[in-house]
Amino acid sequence: MADLDSMDARLDVANLVREEVVTDRKIGSIRVLTPITVDGQRDPAREVTYLGETQIMTQMGPLPISFTINAKSLAEAVEGYAQAAKTGVEETIAKIEAMRREAASKIVTPGDAGFAATANKIQMP
Fold it and tell me: Is-contact 100 88, C-beta < 8 A?
């Protein structure tokens, strides 16, 4: 429990945002993050952020994809959603492929953590 006692779970009052979700209930959603002050008023010193969300189907099931939409208004975010989603999906697929190549190129040797896990699964007749 010592870890819980040292945990600092205070919110950063300088970075509060109000979140709204806009969706067409088919393709995805846009999260509108509006900066606010600690008293709940709009913070004009910071820009509104638009985050898109969608999912793609994989062999393992749906994979959620999140991406930033560069926009100054909700109308711009809606207009830019398709291109931002395409870019987000492409980047996610590239990351998955890189992780797959990295995992395939690893050689497990005695002394590696992976070797111990593999060795424990070997059964002698």
Answer: no
